[in-house]
Amino acid sequence: MKQGGKRVVIIGGGIAGLCAGVYAQKCGYRAEVLEMQNLPGGLAMSWQRDVYTFETCLHWLYGSKPGDGMHSMWQEVCEIGRLTLVHHEEMVRIEAANGESVSFPTNVERLEAELLARSPQDATAIRRLAADIRSLAKFKMPNPVAGWRNLLTLLADLPRMPLLRKLSKMSGEEYGNRFKDPLIRAFFGEGDLGRISALALIFSLAWMGSGNGEYAVGGAQALIRLIEEKFLSLGGQMRFGARVQRILVENGAAVGVELAGGEAIAADWVISAADGHATIYEMLGGKYKAPETDKMYSELELFPSYLQVSLGVALDLAGQPPMLTRLLDAPFHVDPGTELNHLSFRVFNFDPTFAPAGKTAVTCFIPTHNHSYWVNLRESDPAGYRAEKHRVSEAVIGILERNVPGLRPAIEVTDVATPATIVRYTGNWKGAMEGWMLTPGGRMRPYPNTLPGLRQFLMVGQWVSPGGGLPSGPVTARPAIETICKQDKVLFTPK
Prior knowledge:
Layout lengths: L6 E5 L3 H12 L3 E6 L10 E4 L2 E4 L5 E2 L6 H9 L7 E2 L3 E6 L5 E5 L2 H11 L4 H15 L12 H8 L3 H8 L3 H5 L5 H6 L3 H4 L3 H12 L3 E4 L3 H14 L3 E4 L3 E7 L2 E7 L4 E3 L2 E4 L3 H8 L9 H7 L5 E9 L9 E13 L2 E10 L12 E9 L2 H10 L1 H19 L6 H4 E7 L1 H8 L30 E3 L12 H17 L7
Parallel strand pairs: 1-2, 1-14, 2-10, 7-16, 14-20
Antiparallel strand pairs: 3-4, 5-9, 6-9, 7-8, 11-12, 12-13, 15-18, 15-19, 16-17, 17-18
Helix pairs in contact: 1-11, 1-18, 3-4, 4-10, 14-15, 14-17
């Protein structure tokens, strides 16, 4: 790394902010990441309660397969080869209230056979699903590392373009409606999560089946720590407990930031990897907006917020599937305006770092769009807030113990996170689990990472990249630093 370069201040120590820091340091800049909490990661978080660790982010890591373009990008920001990866043989098991179930293996041949055995009347739709998975498993995403060789990739992918266009215009729920069997149909979702583009769901099956969507032992924090380690080893500076209140602007250029408490930090460039709404409307006071900015933040669909009930169970649950979706015989009341017909559980029997031998960490994800109910309740009625969390956790335990006899007396830890928790720890707008949802016919390409009338400033992360997820970190950070280098006439050296 060249010494004495210009100073880059990065707001937010999540995955995008850390990746931007790594690329900046590699190109000779002096990067400092400002994180308002005392740990890096942002939404890519896991936390410890007693002897248990609970995970909220990582389900599978796209780019876990060597030779893939995304894997090459991970290699630029960390030593990804140090991760211990787990290949799930079963993606999810869907179970009805009467005990009937169907498994969704990650291997496409097994998946096709399993579903055909379950529902012969859906043979045509099942074979179509298997064909779609096989086709997308061969699709090569554009690889910024490959340069001109992307043209060859594009030519090889041309036969799959009609399928991509077709799936991108369908929701998961619409795709699932072609199946008669209710358990198979349930895999594709309903309600908020059923509105996700079918393309995203089929890609997830394709990646996991081809070994390019494996789970990293230690969860999202295992990856975050590797990127933080790379950033610090390159000479980057990391500052915790540093909440940015305002981005300082002079003569139409960002010149630094002001922290809560009044401290000013000067910079040649400012990068926001923080919440997009807070960046534009609070840190910049709404002064720098494109004509479509207000429309984006008022009309585009967000990923829902969520509650997560996490349980530390003194049982070895090795016989349970890693993910279980339980269909309910009566709607589950979450909050005013939110009722669910199913609950999804993750049983971390595949991650030995999350619980001691003979014990298991279990989580239940509960989506909701009524984030304001939980935020207002926590602020206005703390006792009522605690009572509501207890109500939800008791209901979740009651549903799960039908699958796990002896569950309740074996529970050693119960932890409930709500949308108020998400807002408090990450500042994510409306407590969303990610940023913009990939909806049918919606935008797939990134949004501009600049703001009109503001120089020396860029945005990275999930508010730039629709669909969010861990890959949005390097995918948005790399071009941002490349832009900075181009404007400063500095050689971009990601290697």
